[in-house]
């Protein structure tokens, strides 16, 4: 068997502070500190505790060239656990899954720090809404009591500010003022298929296809994208759209068409949506949820191992979410966007591998309820007069 280190791994010392009860009984309050080293790898879901010997072993092995296991130079008790957890990669069939995931990250041309941030910031099974309620951090007053005052809303600089003219408002300004995040959807009302089609047409549909070579195509959309690459795919969880069966879909931006996807769970769609939305029940009954899923290789093809590539991907999703907000608002619909999602659970719903594709945000659209059951931020009282 031959071994190598995984492609991207970094080590973090984690410090745990404990009170020394023996010292307390002796009249001293001396905390004790325990430091544990963990390895964070780009192809793994969780940090892995490592010993000092294992840390040195991994630091001494390359990630591109194989070493015979007999030449490792340390006891099997040190390197075999690393093989089981995926920090060491082998050429045998038994550990092929770790090797394939590692190769997927390597071939995706990730900048190492961005790969680690992406992989280890993903959630599974988190109920952020319940955590907010349990910790009494739901309202602004709750946050102020728990966290103290926030930094100032504006940071002025020394000097005299020159006033700018206030230009007369137009219809676009009125549209911008109506753009607010909806937390109260009408769970009994469907949107038209034409409304959903218009929403997609204005935001994620390709307005032009530019064929540079037989295998090299660029799309023109109504939103900017880093490098003009438009790597973000749109998946949908449809609950109430006339003319569409409730279920899961993928949108084709060139054909301007939807294809139904197989269901990977038997739970009601609203439960699936709430799980994807990390328990944010005020969003889960939107008529349709649009899951924004970058294909990392599309961006990394141009920006290989680039420190700004992942930032450009996140900006792309931001551009899309605002465009969807505005298109929904113009159509009289309500909308939301959230990045507080359970990415790993969402990957399972849509059969995404989490390596080449992973969701970054979810946008929901539908009709706003007639009643304000959950507070919404509408200080100018445009939506809720």
TrEMBL record:
SUPFAM superfamilies cross-referenced by the UniProt entry: FMN-dependent nitroreductase-like (SSF55469)
InterPro entries: Bacteriocin_Proc_Enz, Nitroreductase, Nitroreductase-like, SagB-rel_DH_2, SagB-type_dehydrogenase
Occurrences of domain Nitroreductase (ranges): 177-367
Domain of life: Bacteria
Residues annotated as transmembrane: none
Name of this protein: Peptide maturation dehydrogenase
Natural source organism: Stenotrophomonas aracearum
